[in-house]
Amino acid sequence: MTHEQIIELSDKYVMKTYGRLPLTPVKGAGARVWDARGREYLDFLAGIAVCSLGHCHPAVVKAIAEQACTLMHVSNLYYIEQQAKLAKLLAENSFGDRVFFCNSGAEANEGAIKLARKYARLNRGSQKYGIITAFKSFHGRTLAALTATGQAKYQKDFDPLPGGFKYVPFNDLAALESAVDKNTCAILLEPIQGEGGIYEAEQEYLKGARELCNKHGLLLIFDEVQCGLGRTGAFFAYQHYGIEPDVCTLAKSLGGGFPIGAMIATEEAAGAFSPGNHASTFGGNPLACAAALAAMQFVLENNLMENTARVGGYFKARLEVLSSQFPFITEVRGRGLMLGADLTPGSADGQEVVAQCQENGLLINCIDGHILRFLPPLIISEPDVDEAVGILAGVLKNLAG
User: Fold this and answer.
1) Which CATH fold would you assign to the domain 59-301?
2) 349 is catalytic
3) More confident residue, 28 or 345
4) Active-site residue flag, 172
């Protein structure tokens, strides 16, 4: 189909839940994608942190092809070899002991919310059901995950929302402590807020959150759906802080481009679930787990965290140079290959920056109209960064007039 035909067909039949850019990717390889017109783009969004090894990585493609020819799906009523191997890999490389598999980050967070409430009911009484999250957080689009999200714009028009959630300012430990009450069962935080604008948690904040949970018998849940699995320069973002959660949620890059989500928990926390408490028909199917196993083995065996830290540091430094050249870039934030550049609202239209970058062969993203977000594949190189920054600099110069 042509570029125009794809857009016309989509506009006619697909629900209008996305504000789409006029781009029709049809092929990808590494950090590059090509559209239906044959135009090439450098992808610094990676499917919103999903394609961590780039597009169509040979290890993932091989695993999917071989598994698809053998067994794609069986029920979780049975033992699944690929699922067991993936759970072992995640447990052995994290704080956790047991893993629940699902299909997305929202599902993983739903599972964590249920687990926290069940754990509290068993250990602290039925009145313990409240969960504290942060303003500017994002935890998913399903109803409970949406309610956990501390951004009113996502919740608008979906009242009544489930009860039991409180929001506090991010990195405000005193506010977090004040929010704990007789009903609290868990604290749910992102070590780095993604959709909220690329805001890193401070060391003392996460340390204090851990101490609060220890003091009051709460579960500490980290949402690493976007920041986990190598993106920050460590396999898990929490590892930068020297503390461990009780539960951690994952998705996005876990499958190397294939849909899969997961919830990791300690033995104590995981023990709250018994057969029938939670389930997912497609969660942990052989095909998804084969893809994820190949992707995660490649990340770990090739220590992509080192590349993420090195190239991410180089990229951040290049963005900071741009900030000195263009005063409307007020701040460059983030860690590893999860970076954001904040534009002065009203001085530069972030969506226009995204559109012009796309027109010049670079794919990036914008949050809230003024925060440019960069989530390139973990295989990205310094020459790729130079190319991306060159395109971005040209666009900013053009917009600056």
Assistant:
1) Aspartate Aminotransferase; domain 2 (3.40.640)
2) no
3) 28
4) no
